[in-house]
């Protein structure tokens, strides 16, 4: 199994002070960047210029979560901007195999995201090609939502599917994660944890990142 990684989401940062808010999470393993197009989700956030801006001020790998309807047409913008990991939604990419191959050919890591209602079986034929699977534990669009309880069992089903396929992707979970539930999410089989409001809402952001990582290890 993998060492746990904490990926604070800059959706919860003060974007007017982005450089400062990146400095405040220097203990992060990944920086999670939520790209929303106002169409796939009812919110609109960061374009490739924001990814490039992050790249200028941090060496921490950028984990770019593409919540867009046309990932096949837009992922190159984010790869050009310096994305280290790109995750695309299974619900949005018509040619997932081609998209994943393209991301890897361009030297980045590739992941596929599942919305809460999308079954893990949707990944059966692509699993061996993936660096990561991202399981949404909220309906995407906004920070600060409540963790959907059915996600624990879903992670376990994904772990079984990976074992049967002999595949070893990282398993990331996104939405409603805090120090209060990260142990149980890790026990289900996840190793990469996105946290927006829990990290940015803490008094000492780096201390909270370290605390969450330690809990995930326990
Ligand atoms: C939700 C985003 C998440 C969000 C998580 O659509 O994909 O990455 O930032 O925020 P919290 O941790 O506050 O649920
Ligand atoms: Zn996200």
Automatic annotation (TrEMBL):
Molecular function per GO: D-ribulose-phosphate 3-epimerase activity; metal ion binding
Cofactor note: Binds 1 divalent metal cation per subunit.
Catalytic activity line of the entry: D-ribulose 5-phosphate = D-xylulose 5-phosphate
InterPro entries reported in the protein's UniProt record: Aldolase_TIM, Ribul_P_3_epim, Ribul_P_3_epim-like, RibuloseP-bd_barrel
Function noted in UniProt: Catalyzes the reversible epimerization of D-ribulose 5-phosphate to D-xylulose 5-phosphate.
Assigned protein family: Belongs to the ribulose-phosphate 3-epimerase family.
Name this protein carries in UniProt: Ribulose-phosphate 3-epimerase
Organism: [Collinsella] massiliensis
Organismal lineage: Bacteria, Bacillati, Actinomycetota, Coriobacteriia, Coriobacteriales
């Amino acid at each position: 199994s993998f060492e746990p990684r904490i990926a604070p989401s800059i959706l919860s940062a003060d974007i007017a002070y982005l450089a400062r808010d990146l400095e405040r999470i220097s203990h992060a393993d990944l920086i999670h960047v939520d790209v929303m197009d106002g169409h796939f989700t009812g919110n609109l956030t960061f374009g490739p210029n924001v990814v490039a801006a992050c790249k200028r001020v941090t060496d921490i790998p950028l984990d770019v979560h593409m919540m867009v309807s046309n990932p096949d047409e837009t992922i190159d913008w984010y790869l050009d901007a310096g994305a280290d990991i790109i995750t695309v939604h299974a619900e949005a990419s018509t040619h997932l195999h081609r998209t994943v191959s393209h991301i890897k050919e361009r030297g980045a890591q590739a992941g596929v995201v599942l919305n809460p209602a999308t079954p893990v079986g949707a990944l059966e034929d692509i699993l061996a090609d993936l660096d990561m699977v991202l399981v949404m534990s909220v309906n995407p669009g906004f920070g600060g939502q409540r963790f959907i309880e059915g996600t624990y069992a879903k992670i376990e089903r994904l772990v079984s599917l990976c074992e049967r396929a002999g595949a070893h992707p990282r398993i990331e979970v996104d939405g409603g994660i805090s120090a209060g539930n990260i142990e149980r999410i890790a026990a289900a089989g996840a190793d990469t944890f996105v946290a927006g409001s829990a990290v940015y809402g803490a008094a000492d952001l780096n201390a909270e990142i370290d605390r969450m990582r330690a809990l995930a290890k326990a």
